[in-house]
Amino acid sequence: MIEQFKKDVDTGLSAQPKHLSSKYFYDDIGSQIFQKIMAMPEYYLTDSEFEILSLQAKQIAEKLNFYGTFNIIELGAGDGYKTIKLLKNFIELGLEFTYIPVDISKKAIDILLEKVAKEIPDLKVKPFVGDYFKLLSTMPNDIPSLVLFLGSNIGNFKKDDAQYFLKSIQNHLKPNDKLLIGFDLQKNPITIKNAYDDPHGITKAFNMNLLHRINNELGADFRLDKFDFYCHYNPVNGEVRSYLVSLKQQDVYIKSLDKSYSFDYNELIWTELSKKYSFTEIESFCTASKFKLTHNFLDCKHYFIDSLWSV
Ligand code: AVJ
Q: PANTHER family in the record, alphabetically (predicted)?
């Protein structure tokens, strides 16, 4: 874990242009900041997907075509706020299933389990801490699975990586299985910009936490007041890109790598891609990864899609 982190930090800060991966945002502090992001009114993604899972659970259940018991496998379960709504609705509809939340963070799973036990005490839960594909390859043949990959988490992947990831999921599924995957749609660029360049400084804190983490875990001496946050949305290609900006020419020493890194005045570190999709892109992702598109579930504003794919 820490070895991979060290390696990725060294690679990213030695590269030209510099980059760090958004997958390292989510330590305990980062996960808490992300909860605050999801609660911001500007971060419409939460409300849009919540609406879909609240109001269209019955329609989703009908399209599943599952008879009898099934599994719901959630990849990167997070805090479960939106999923719990879906699970509750499914139970009210009389569906019978086991919920299998999967996350690499034990702490995230523990928090989720506590919440689920409180809100849906009768739910059958079989949590898994570890690699998504490890879990998928242990699933039995006799019971179908609905795999959830919600929240537009796919938006963090570059195109080829997203393609490879979806294809790997497809390879691990059985003929009756389904995938419900969230995509944030292209929309008025101002709406998108406001969701990421927020006036509260929460998204800035989310990015800054990466430097804080490198200081704490790798013994670096990043001076957080000498970096700022910048992000921008390009409506031509649907990409939100987030950066940290060096506010002066400076050197940063990382103890556990015993190495210094130079930053120019105004040099950028690219931290995140949050891709927004068109319908055509979603369809071609689906076909290219050998899935069949069963149905697109949209919120009333048409901001977000939960797309249901069959094997
Ligand atoms: C969790 C990847 C969907 O890209 O919208 C929120 C993370 N970054 N604000 C996103 C995030 C900045 C989020 N995802």
A: ERGOTHIONEINE BIOSYNTHESIS PROTEIN 1 (PTHR43397)
Q: Please give the Cα distance from 218 to 22 (Å, whole number).
A: 17
**Ligand 1: which of 274, 275, 305 to mutate, most ligand atoms within 8 Å of CB?**
274
Pocket test for ligand 1, best of 33, 272, 277 (most atoms within 8 A of CB): 272
Give the Cα separation of 245 and 188 in Å (integer).
26
Q: If you take atom 2 of ligand 1, which residue's CA is the nearest one? A: 153
Whether the predicted pLDDT of 229 surpasses 80: yes
Determine the 3-state secondary structure of 110 from DSSP. helix
Could you tell me if the CB of 196 is within 6 A of ligand 1?
yes
Question: How far, in Å, CA of 60 to CA of 52, rounded?
Answer: 9
**pTM, 2 dp:** 0.95
- Average pLDDT for residues 243-259, to the nearest whole number? 98
Q: Round to whole Å and give the CA distance between 270 and 239.
A: 13
Tokens (6 digits) for 99: 């919920």
* Ligand 1 neighbour 35 (Cβ under 6 A): no
Find the distance separating the first CA and the last CA of the chain, reported in whole Å: 33
Buried/exposed 22-54: b ≥16 CB within 10 Å, e otherwise: bebbbbeebbebbeebbebebbbbbbbbbbbbe
Query: Rg of the chain over CA atoms, in angstroms?
Result: 20
DSSP assigned state of 156: G
Q: Per residue in 158-205, pLDDT tens?
A: 999 999 999 999 999 999 999 999 999 999 999 999 999 999 999 999
Residue of the CA atom closest to atom 10 of ligand 1: 274
- On average, the pLDDT of the chain sits at 96
Q: Which atom of ligand 1 is nearest to the CA of 152?
A: 3
Alpha carbon nearest to ligand 1 atom 14, residue: 153
Is the beta carbon of 37 within 6 A of some atom in ligand 1?
yes
Task: State the complex-level ipTM.
Answer: 0.99
State phi, psi for 297 to the nearest 5 degrees.
-100, 120
The answer to whether residue 306 scores a pLDDT higher than 80 is yes
